[in-house]
Amino acid sequence: MIADRNVFDRLATWYETAKVERRESSESREVELRCVSPLGQTSLYPDDLPLVFLTRNDARLMPGFLAHYRSLGVTRFICVDDASTDGTREYLLGEPDVDLWASTLRHWEARHGRLWREALFALYGGERWYVNVDSDEFLVYDDCENRTLWSVIHALEDLKISRLPAPMLDMYPIDLGAADVNQLKTRAPWEIADHFDSRGYSLATTTRAITVKGGARHREFDSDLELIKYPLIFWDEDCRFGAGIHQPLPFQRNFSSVLGALLHFALFADYKEIAEDAVSGGPHFDGSAAHARTQEARSSTDLLQLFTHSSVKFGGSKQLLRLGFITPVPRAAAGGER
User: What per-residue confidence (pLDDT) applies to 297?
Assistant: First the structure.
């Protein structure tokens, strides 16, 4: 849980929001996007639950990614493909519930994809809930095996909460060399990269957001990446990504309890190639410096071993609840579940 913030903390957050909003307004920039799906852009209906995501060369994860979020109630996927060369684009073009977009810019030129996301929210319309993730991030929350995201949304609305904080948990196999990505054709990613660090994290708040750091990349590669994201967000005219995807504007909305977690899948047997691609500019976020350190560590050993005494095998949402990574999502008022 996030402790109640005193009046001075709240005032500091209001000031920080106003300052960054002024800067963002003065630095606003148009970004070119074109829909490459055969039928063009799809209109959203009020009962649609859209998911916006960015991808590059994640064909191996696409079947599991789409299946996971469909099971959570997502009805429309809206994707920017950052010049994939592994068949990702061709695969997504064949999925009828995917709107695929392309850009003349690369990920880093679009402010690490933030301009793409904001442009898509503008095109598809605000005053509605969106799932907002990357293609290697799988959202889990209390009892997600049995309840859809609409159940969570209605609970958040009852609590007057407009976004859901979730830390990324780096998932990894016991034996990295044996984690053949071809297994992803028939198995869920958490059945292959099935472990995560159960401790070694820090949680705090700043004037802008919750901050969570630690995990496997910090332990093994001295990575100081911010882990918190807001993968479920009510987007309206006041929202911007401002300083980064980890600190969306307005900052006042960023301090609710950590109700979900993002299982992050980047550590399979092909990780050296993925790291090389990220260093060259892929969208595997926040990243080239951290990936460069990881790539150096990966190439300096015959077999990178991530398993340690703090590793535990993933056992579903109830396990994360028991370990304290997520907090319970209350049931919505009568009539609010679906």
Answer: 52
